[in-house]
Write a structure and sequence with these properties.
about 180 residues; alpha/beta; Rossmann fold; binds shikimate-3-phosphate
């Protein structure tokens, strides 16, 4: 299996900030699947959705996943919220960590950030909050199934989440089945 650490979870759970802090702590580089797509396409995600439709974006996510599975190792991979839902085998990329939060927890986090409007505007699937909540609920089981490790991040600081992740990543002591 690949040695990447793959962060999955709904929009706004904090995959970006957690990945950047983990990167400094573990001295590993970070790749963000959305950033790779933006750089391939030279346009923003919301423009890709608007001009080409969601299916085109999901095809790009699958392309990025295949490329990463073939070429990327020892890296932290932050994924878009729909990545583990639409790509065939996210586990092929490495250890998958699901950052889990409730819709209220996500909204609280976004609203207490320094630019909540910008955070919502760049995400086409977050335009309508009722629909976003239903989307999160429809994905819960799939996130859990895609994950090797689930971390409940609700109400926790970045430092608390990082501590839980590093604990969960520790190798099991010799002689145990865990
Ligand atoms: C999406 C999440 C976004 C981005 C795109 C679609 C989704 O990434 O990939 O807008 O389907 O949940 P973030 O989770 O980084 O916002």
């Amino acid at each position: 299996m690949k040695n990447n650490i793959v962060l999955i979870g709904f929009m706004g759970v904090g995959k970006g900030s957690i990945s950047r802090t983990l990167s400094k702590m573990l001295d590993m580089l970070v790749l963000d699947t959305d950033d790779v797509i933006v750089s391939m396409e030279k346009r923003e995600i919301k423009t890709i959705f608007k001009k080409e439709g969601e299916g085109y974006f999901r095809d790009l996510e699958n392309k990025v996943c295949r490329w990463m599975a073939a070429n990327i190792d020892h890296t932290i991979i932050a994924t878009g919220g729909g990545f583990p839902i639409y790509v065939d085998d996210v586990k092929a990329l490495g250890r998958v960590i699901y950052l889990k939060n409730s819709f209220k927890g996500i909204m609280d986090r976004i609203e207490s950030s320094h630019n909540p409007k910008k955070k919502l505007k760049k995400r086409p699937l977050f335009k309508d909050q009722k629909k976003a909540k239903a989307l999160l609920e429809s994905r819960l089981e799939k996130y859990a199934a895609a994950a090797d490790i689930t971390i409940d991040v609700e109400g926790k600081t970045v430092a608390e989440v990082i501590a839980e992740i590093t604990e969960a990543l520790k190798p099991a002591p010799v002689g145990t089945d865990a």
